[in-house]
Amino acid sequence: MSDGTFTYLRDAVTAETLTQIKTDGSGILNISPNLGIGTANQGKTATHALGIVQTDSATTGCWSYGAFYDPQGTVLCPIQGGGSQTSGLPALAKPVRLQTGVQVKVYWQVKADEIQIASVAVVCASGKTDIFSTLAVDDQDVSLLNKDGATWGQALAGQTVVQAYATYPASNGVADTGEADGVSGFYVESASGQLLGMYAPCMGNQQDPTPWIRQTIRVNQNDKLVARANI
User: Fold this and answer.
1) Does 10 fall in a domain?
2) Residue 5 domain-assigned?
3) Residue 190: which residues within 8 A CB-CB, separation 6 or more?
4) How many domains does the chain have?
5) Whether the Cβ atoms of residue 172 and residue 203 lie closer than 8 Å to each other
6) pLDDT by residue (tens digit) across 100-145?
7) CA pair distance 223, 156, nearest whole angstrom
8) First vs last Cα of the chain: how many Å apart?
9) In the 3-class helix/strand/coil scheme, how is 6-40 assigned residue by residue?
10) What is the pLDDT of residues 64-74, one digit of tens each?
């Protein structure tokens, strides 16, 4: 927090389910247990955060995305994360003022050699943030959507995206076989098909936090963010 204090959140989280995690209830740490982060830290400002996925087989847990959410479920700020060996405490893209109803929610997947869920968390120059995801499809273009079912262009029209992180936990990446029917990145296209940008995803189980990709993309209403996999 901005005042130098810390908190620790921990919960059992089902794979491929966006879930709130609350303050640690083990009793090991001197913190109030089993509370949402906003309730436990009212009036404080979060400035740094890290998410860690820990499974029985430590190499299989992959970070997809996580974020602070407001009481209405709007993304306030994405959180970087990774697998069980991830270390560090990255600065948030912007500070988050905590109050009752503010939650931290996370989403993770199990690494597998198969089609997986693609996700991209974005930060705009205005401070607006959002998260887009979709289940990739073999040899087909699929648009990534936010939690409200809006496309990249619908959700971000008029905004300028300045950084993002992308994840896809397939063992051999998006273009599994390296053939021409897959693209090793999630790409932004205009309505006319012009390529506007691309985000190469990581698996989300690395030792460093999922990295920000710093790229400036001006968004128009009919633009789309697309995944195309092959396996």
Assistant:
1) no
2) no
3) 196, 220, 222, 223
4) 1
5) no
6) 999 999 999 999 988 999 999 999 999 999 999 999 999 899 999 9
7) 9
8) 43
9) CCCECCCCCCCCCEEECECCCCCCCCCCCCCHHHH
10) 999 999 999 99
pLDDT at 230 over 90: no
Structure token pair of residue 56: 């029985």
pLDDT band at 59 (very low <50, low <70, confident <90, very high): confident
Long-range Cβ pairs for the range 1-10 (8 Å, 24+): 1/41, 1/44, 1/45, 1/46, 1/47, 2/44, 2/45, 2/46, 2/47, 2/95, 3/44, 3/45, 5/41, 5/44, 7/31, 7/37, 7/40, 7/41, 9/37, 9/104
Distance of CA 146 to the CA centre of its chain: 11
> Hunting for tokens 């887009």 — which residue is that?
132
Domain that holds residue 93: 19-228
Whether the pTM exceeds 0.85: the reply is yes
8 within some domain: no
**Is residue 6 in some structural domain?**
no
Residues 230, 141 contacting (CB under 8 angstroms): no
